[in-house]
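WP5 quarterly update. Target: Secreted protein. Source organism: Streptomyces sviceus. Length: 391 aa.
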Amino acid sequence: MSASDSVPRVGVWLIGARGSVATTVVAGCAAMAAGLHPPTGLITETPPLTGSGLPDLSALVFGGHDTVDCPLPKRAEALAAGGVLPHGLPAAVSAELAAAEREIRPGGPLPGDSRTEEDLIAAFAADIRSFVRRGRLARAVVVNVASTEPAPTGDALPPSSLYAAAALRAGCAYVNFTPSTGMHHPALTQAAKSSGLPHAGRDGKTGQTLLRSVLGPMFTQRALTVRAWSGTNLLGGGDGASLADPAAAAAKNAGKERVLADTLATTPEGEVHIDDVPALGDWKTAWDHIAFDGFLGTRMILQTTWQGCDSALAAPLVLDLARLTARAHERGLSGPLSELGFYFKDPVGQGPAGLGEQYAALVRFAERLRASPADGGTRSHTEGRSGEEQR
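Structure tokens (predicted):
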């Protein structure tokens, strides 16, 4: 057995595996593992988190579900043409993109799909289990990076919850990087509790809300009264198209509003508007207009503009979350990982809302993951079972 074979490999099963975020995750991980690019944006590669026993980037193996059929290498070429990926990178990591493409399975439900919820969950779980067995993986983490879906209105499980249920059945930790329902559906509450598996989410905090989680505490700590906070998002690509649906946009905005309510202890006037601008592709512009009162009631305004690429902002966070959640699973932690609230607009469990306090909680969590079992205190969540034991 070679030295590389002796390193436990960890699977990352991406829901929405042929999308922009997933493609950037796979290509970026391969580029960093090969030393082609530095790990810019990866918090898990900074000193407070290194040494926590996280799986190496080179140990991550990718697969996933998707309902579209554009091959991953072709999607990577399109992203490079749009400036999302560096020129020449798809060719440099073509083997890794092709390997991930071979591990992508059809998602669902597809139009006209006659399968029941149970049929779909069983099929998705079988795909994930097969991925783990085929790759001889130590474990796998299921990460939802699919387009935002509207909030459910009836008892039927939305697609994101079908995938979450499949993750539980396959014995895998789960991360919801989207605003979609996922593990939050009431029908999954008991299964999540009894699974002995860790989960984290929801809705990755990449741009506008990241800034809000910094500015909100600033106003509170300086005793400045925020009267109104309005925002506009202009974006294209798959996210822009899906968020053109008012119901999907409402699900997205809920997390943005929660950050302000939590950090300001009140909900100021104003709304966030999301506009689909297809010409922008994978790039986004977010503008905020903040009206606040200063000393003696002096009225003032702060405006911010954030221009960035959602895929490039999200990809390092997805890699961080996959590594941290895999390590938590390895250590036997289970239930909602509230310590990962640093990464989310609408985090599970109880925790602070300000980015500074969330970062401190993340660093403490890394210390728990680093500690040896003999140190005690590392299993404050319910004891977890391995995926193989649940099968």
